[in-house]
Amino acid sequence: MSRAVRILIVEDRPDDVELLLDELRRSDFAPEWDSVQSEPAFVQRLQQEWDVILADYKVPGLEAPRVLQLVKEHSLDVPVIVLSGVVGEETVWECLKHGATDYLMKDRLTRLGSAVTQAIEKRDAERALQLSRQKAEENRRRLEARQQYAQKLESLGILAGGVAHEFNNLLTVIIGNVSLALAELHPDSSLYENLRQVEIAANRAAELTSQMLSFSGKGILQTTSFNLSELVEDSIDLLKSFVVSDKVAIHTELAGGLPEMQADPEQIRQILINLCANASEACMEAKGGGEIAIRTAIVARNQIPSTALSPDELFEEEYFLLEIKDNGLGMAPEMLPKVFDPFFTTKFPGRGLGLAAVLGIVRSHRGAVHIDSQRNVGTTVDVFIPVRQRESRR
Fold first, then answer.
1. Higher model confidence: residue 351 or residue 385?
2. What count of other Cβ atoms lies within 10 Å of the Cβ of residue 378?
3. What's the CA dihedral at 198, 204, 209, 212 to 10 degrees?
4. CATH T-level topology, domain 224-386
5. Helix or strand holding residue 369 (H, E)
6. What mean pLDDT is reported for the chain?
7. How many Å apart are CA 41 and CA 51, to the nearest integer?
8. Which of 41, 51, 58, 240 is most buried when burial is the number of CB atoms within 10 A of its CB?
9. Dihedral of the CA atoms 256, 260, 262, 266 (nearest 10)?
10. If 0-12 CB within 10 Å is exposed, 13-18 middle and 19+ buried, where does residue 61 land?
11. What is the spatial distance between Cα 270 and Cα 201, in angstroms, rounded to a whole number?
């Protein structure tokens, strides 16, 4: 079966054009072709896509060196095969030096088919190599940015962990003494309400301290065995009553037969609450309502996106997936790199650590988290927690 090939021929002799086409057909090519013999026509044809350019060396006003120069000026990778009658060896090498793929004598056209084949194969190989290099460079830049971001979060985590521990010690004293004072006072006392406000503020600060510890990955883990799907199912009433707006519907797709997760169930529940709270607010902001989809599953390591944030390399073969998806407002692309920064918010300030705390919890469990968001479409957050080898299915 003949191979289709798009050929642009630079030739001022129609008989020679026919000779080239006949030889290509004998070599099992089905050429789609055009011919030119002036520079303006050649430049115009360069706007089209060609597999090979066949250029006679001595077309008046458009000699082969000029053809090669124009191809280079237009940044094209189309192979150029130069053809001629009798020329010196220096001319051949000059053409090859300036970018010609091959050089054929017109009285030896039997090699034309193989020359065209080799030229196309060389072009395709060079394109593949260039694409591979571009992908490698993109991966290098992405991994470098990911490493820099992870290092930044690690530094913030160390700082947050140290501050949180010291702050927690101070709050323990404050809350303890306020509680003792309240126990001694009558509720009608003028100081009672003031102390109650101190207690409320101190407890809120303690919650923030706990989030800081979560972000730092240094919170105390109460690890136990539990079923992730059952934990989500048991949390739905809590989410509907206190976290998610009644104008936002919750749908679940919970996998059955999951292995037991070895993790801190309250911290995993905290991830669920934080993500659902964000999703609900995004839905309300966009449409005054919407939907949240919660999904659990088991995924293989190679299914985790390379852009997912994790503390280090992921070694386990399988991971639990907790996915929270909403059809809310979504985020612009420039916001995505910042969403895990402490106290970052697209809403009003003073919201706590939010997604930063989620990342801290995931990090303390040696997992990963990935976020995908499109403006006016919605957001999907995938949390990956490793399935340990010792865990058994039930």
1. 385
2. 23
3. -150
4. Heat Shock Protein 90 (3.30.565)
5. strand 368-374
6. 86
7. 18
8. 51
9. 50
10. exposed
11. 21
Instruction: Give how far Cα 188 sits from Cα of 129, 133, 157, 180, 185, Å.
Output: 81, 76, 44, 16, 8
The fold of the 3-130 domain, in CATH, is Rossmann fold (3.40.50)
Say yes or no to pLDDT of 314 above 80. Answer: yes
Cα 236-357-150 angle, rounded to 5 deg: 135
User: Which tokens is 374 given?
Assistant: 């499109």
- Nearest Cα neighbor of 386 from 300, 308, 323, 326 is 300
> Between 295 and 222, whose confidence is greater?
295
Three-state DSSP class for residue 319 = strand
C-alpha span between 206 and 193 (Å, rounded): 20
155: left (phi over 0), alpha (psi -120 to 50) or beta: alpha
Highest averaged pLDDT of the listed ranges 28-37, 157-166, 213-222, 261-270: 28-37
**What residue has token string 């196309």?**
120
CA 230 to chain centre: 31
188 is written with which tokens? 């009608």
Query: How deeply is 181 buried, as exposed, middle or buried, from its count of CB atoms within 10 A (0-12, 13-18, 19+)?
Result: middle
354-368 burial string, b = 16+ CB within 10 Å, else e? bbbbbbbbbbbbbbb
Q: Which of 224, 216, 212 is nearest to 266 (CA)?
A: 224
CA gyration radius for the chain?
Answer: 34
d(Cα 317, Cα 329) in Å, to the nearest integer? 35
Supply the DSSP string of 5-56, one letter for each residue: EEEEEE-S-HHHHHHHHHHHHHTTEEEEEEEE-SHHHHHHHTTS--SEEEEE
350 token code pair: 């003073």
